[in-house]
Amino acid sequence: MANQRNRGIICIILSSLSFAFMALFLRMAGDLPSIEKSFFRNLVSAVFAFIMLVRSKEKFRIRKKENLYLFILRSLTGTLGIFCNFYAVDHLLLSDASCLNKLSPFFVIVFSYFLLKEKITLFQSGCVAAAFIGSLFIIKPSFASSSLEASVIGFLGGMSAGFAYACVRKLGVRGERGPMIVLFFSLFSMLACIPFMIVDFQPISGRQLVFLILTGLAAAGGQFGITAAYTYAPAREISVYDYSQIMFSAIMGFFFFGQVPDGWSFIGYIVIVIAGVTMFFYNKKHGGD
């Protein structure tokens, strides 16, 4: 069980790194409609999942028909989460949008309690709360009343993503394969993008296409990583490590855009690292499954 947990931790950290690269490439892709960016984000993931399934023995098969509703729920809430997050990015300060999106690990634990009956100790809840507070030190959100609608949508995006990842965990527990989960979600999300792209499509330059492909590759890595993570271990033991994406993004911001974190941000880094390390040793000591 300990090895499974450690694999889950490694997968979610690698996933966070991949998603940080995705955000970097997404920004470098320039001024394009969020829906187009979302479409390419899922297109590459779908291709990778398709190839993996073609090479597998079971091909494109959902192992248990009673899991179909979970596939649909995961895809619906995951797609809603992407759309809400992009809407928030387009209409809020980036710090506000990022903060709302980082609520998803918290919601993973909440929804895993209801979907999987995974118990949460007071100590573990404290670690997750500390990590969330640390993220607030870093992104320092400044909520404005004039942006209430976008803020609510961004909040719903974080909640939707948390529900989606809890569904991933339950699908993994029920024996469903990661590539099938990713392919189902990617195709669902792409189909949801098509009507919007027909209404508002903008031509893409060669440079933008390159960065969109890189965005998709990074997103695929992140998607496979987080899917694997929640199939290896319960959300209460690993979701806190998803906050490492904030640190990766800060490092990339410094090297690519010359952004230097302030003192509040460094306090946030320390809080997050301490929370993550503390939770790791707590789970190791108590032998959580």
UniProtKB/TrEMBL annotation:
<feature type="transmembrane region" description="Helical">
    <location>
        <begin position="123"/>
        <end position="144"/>
    </location>
</feature>
<protein>
    <submittedName>
        <fullName>DMT family transporter</fullName>
    </submittedName>
</protein>
<feature type="transmembrane region" description="Helical">
    <location>
        <begin position="210"/>
        <end position="233"/>
    </location>
</feature>
<feature type="domain" description="EamA">
    <location>
        <begin position="153"/>
        <end position="279"/>
    </location>
</feature>
<keyword id="KW-0812">Transmembrane</keyword>
<feature type="domain" description="EamA">
    <location>
        <begin position="7"/>
        <end position="139"/>
    </location>
</feature>
<feature type="transmembrane region" description="Helical">
    <location>
        <begin position="263"/>
        <end position="282"/>
    </location>
</feature>
<feature type="transmembrane region" description="Helical">
    <location>
        <begin position="38"/>
        <end position="56"/>
    </location>
</feature>
<feature type="transmembrane region" description="Helical">
    <location>
        <begin position="7"/>
        <end position="26"/>
    </location>
</feature>
<feature type="transmembrane region" description="Helical">
    <location>
        <begin position="180"/>
        <end position="198"/>
    </location>
</feature>
<feature type="transmembrane region" description="Helical">
    <location>
        <begin position="100"/>
        <end position="116"/>
    </location>
</feature>
<comment type="similarity">
    <text>Belongs to the EamA transporter family.</text>
</comment>
<dbReference type="Pfam" id="PF00892">
    <property type="entry name" value="EamA"/>
</dbReference>
<dbReference type="InterPro" id="IPR037185">
    <property type="entry name" value="EmrE-like"/>
</dbReference>
<feature type="transmembrane region" description="Helical">
    <location>
        <begin position="240"/>
        <end position="257"/>
    </location>
</feature>
<keyword id="KW-1133">Transmembrane helix</keyword>
<keyword id="KW-0472">Membrane</keyword>
<feature type="transmembrane region" description="Helical">
    <location>
        <begin position="68"/>
        <end position="88"/>
    </location>
</feature>
<feature type="transmembrane region" description="Helical">
    <location>
        <begin position="150"/>
        <end position="168"/>
    </location>
</feature>
<dbReference type="InterPro" id="IPR000620">
    <property type="entry name" value="EamA_dom"/>
</dbReference>
<dbReference type="GO" id="GO:0016020">
    <property type="term" value="C:membrane"/>
</dbReference>
